[in-house]
Amino acid sequence: MSRALDDLDPVFKPVAFELLARCVEAGIPVVVVDTRRTAAEQAANVAKGVSWVTRSKHQDGLAIDVCPFSQYDAHGPDKLLWEAGDPIWQRLGAIGERLGLRWGGRWTQADLGHFEYVAPVTTRRA
Fold this sequence. Notes:
It contains four helices and four strands. With 126 residues, the protein is an alpha+beta fold.
């Protein structure tokens, strides 16, 4: 798995940078946990129970996982140990959603640190 921002798709990379900048402005230090991953890495994440889909936007460089430093420092990289009830997740989710990102915290199987690119909707003129 990669944590490199340069591994993100060029269309998503500036939005990911914006997400990180907005976290800094909000006083929320974060750790980049994951950017791009291979199909084999995705399958391993499913087997470990830290992902629930066979095909992830991470495989296309269109998703990023971040974790508030306070959670990462206290519990390490295993997202199953992070405290889901910490209100900092809601603050992170709101930041990402304001940027037009899809936040994994809204999913039935919540993935609180996950943000993924959503293509802008364009309208056609007749």
